[in-house]
Amino acid sequence: MSTQIPKQTEKADETAAETESEAPSKGDERRAEKRRRADEQRRQREAEEAERAAADENTVELRVFRYDPDVEGKQEPRFDTFHVPFTKGMTVLDALMYSRDTYDSSLTFRHSCRQAVCGSDAMFVNGGQKLACKTQIDELEEPIRVEPLPHAEVTKDLVVDLEHFYDQMEAVEPYFQTNEYPDGELEEQRQTRENREKIKMSTRCIWCSACMSSCNIAAGDNEYLGPAAINKAYRFAMDEREGEDVKQKRLEIIEQEHGVWRCQTQFSCTEVCPKDIPLTEHIQELKREAVKNNLKFW
Amino acid sequence: MSQSYNRGLIEDFSRWREFEAGMWAWIFHKFTGWVLIGYLFTHIAVLSTAIPASGAETAVLQAGNDVYTQTIVSLEGLLLVRVLEVGLLAVAVFHMLNGARLLLVDLGVGLESQDKSFYASLVLTGAITVASVPTFIAGAF
Ligand code: HEM
Ligand code: SF4
Ligand code: FES
């Protein structure tokens, strides 16, 4: 729907250009005039659109967090209200895109795949961490409050700085390592079906940071690895192909002071994860793994 | 880095308003744990009045005139103390039941029903507390 809007503008521009080309005046002036008129038309169309949407029964009301540290007058955080015509199957991301394309092109948020794959649009919707493209409008209460993820620096509007989250992900060395190679040089490193099944859910993480943002402990301790990073560590520590040496190294990383033992089993991360990864379960299993590794009765 | 985030002005926004079961369980468990610790120390203080009483004459003890008996009797005579005792039972029962739930969570047992076991703890605590009221309040009025 949102993609149709710019096309309409183009059409309006064309008609404006046609009428103007008959008027005998210099090129620059004409272009300035054309731009002015296009501007005027756009503003009028926006006003009409907003009026119609506000009057229409079947619209949803969005309250969107706005903040821009670079523009004077926008440094004070505020909420803007947008009325968006509802269509069946509309997601929060669709509504935001409509708002941006129709009302305010400066409205800033991340998105890419629009199908819960890229992990770029985790936001705080009606008081919970949600993936905007995976959250249906008709399942939410109105007005829908859209805010940036808690516990991260806000760069602009709904965009937060995820550098810290990525640092934590990298801290667990999220890549396959092993000292145990198969005999033949060209032989594949095969994984058993059971082992693949064991790590299946943990491989689904899309690095959206919703879990990190929902975690009370991560909020109070910036050094805590966080649910996503620990889940990533689980994905490799439980992979039998990595071998015993590497597993020892991985356990050392996860059982450090700001590792698994910080988890207080609040289940917030498991609750918000858009990929339904049983994060708490994985963290608990690593805790037991760490204990078993250190307890020696002989 | 080691301090928690302070986003300044923005910190007032984007706060959790909706807690899920697991979070409530955590908050209640913390709260009840510390209430129990608090009670433990007051309890020790009250029981210590038995130390001077142990030196009292047998006749005084039999008449119930020693410090310890007097302290207990006067405390139990207060309606507030009776009500607090009901509260203490509620707190202790919840801490025990949820403690058992947390032990299961630590063992990785039934993690999918962690919310249900929390609600079950709450309901059971409520039932036991209500059932205890006659015993605790009897004779207080
Ligand atoms: C059957 C009896 C009890 C059980 C099963 C139990 C269980 C537990 C468990 C599992 C925890 C750890 C919570 C976590 O993992 O975060 C805990 C914490 C705690 N318990 Fe208990 N407990 C019991 C009795 C008591 C008593 C009698 C007291 C006080 C005298 C007490 C005081 C505490 C305190 C202060 C904490 C720490 C709370 C915090 O996280 O700050 N508990 N209990
Ligand atoms: S574990 Fe889930 S919530 Fe956390 S970053 Fe990965 S996909 Fe997002
Ligand atoms: S836009 Fe890619 S996950 Fe939502």
From TrEMBL, chain A:
Annotated GO biological process: respiratory electron transport chain; tricarboxylic acid cycle
Biased segments, Basic and acidic residues type: 23-55
A Pfam family recorded for this sequence: Fer2_3
Source species of the chain: Halorubrum aquaticum
Location of the region described as Disordered in the Swiss-Prot/TrEMBL record: 1-55
Cleavable signal peptide: none
Cofactor: [4Fe-4S] cluster; [3Fe-4S] cluster; [2Fe-2S] cluster
Residue intervals of the Succinate dehydogenase/fumarate reductase N-terminal domain: 62-166
GO MF entries: 2 iron, 2 sulfur cluster binding; 4 iron, 4 sulfur cluster binding; electron transfer activity; metal ion binding; oxidoreductase activity
Every 4Fe-4S ferredoxin-type domain range: 203-277
Family stated for the protein in its record: Belongs to the succinate dehydrogenase/fumarate reductase iron-sulfur protein family.
Keywords of the record: 2Fe-2S, 4Fe-4S, Iron, Iron-sulfur, Metal-binding, Oxidoreductase
Protein's recorded name: Succinate dehydrogenase / fumarate reductase iron-sulfur subunit
Secreted is among the record's keywords: no
TrEMBL record, chain B:
Molecular function (Gene Ontology), one example: metal ion binding
Entry-linked InterPro entries: SdhC_prok, SQR/QFR_C/D, Succ_DH_cytb556, SuccDH_FuR_B_TM-su
GO-annotated cellular components: membrane
TM region positions: 79-97, 118-140
Stored SUPFAM superfamilies: Fumarate reductase respiratory complex transmembrane subunits
Superkingdom per UniProt: Archaea
Keywords: Heme, Iron, Membrane, Metal-binding, Transmembrane, Transmembrane helix
Main location: membrane
Subcellular location(s) per record: Membrane
Keyword Cytoplasm in annotation: no
Biological process terms in GO annotation: tricarboxylic acid cycle
NCBIfam families per record: succ_dehyd_cytB (TIGR02970)
Name of protein: Succinate dehydrogenase subunit C
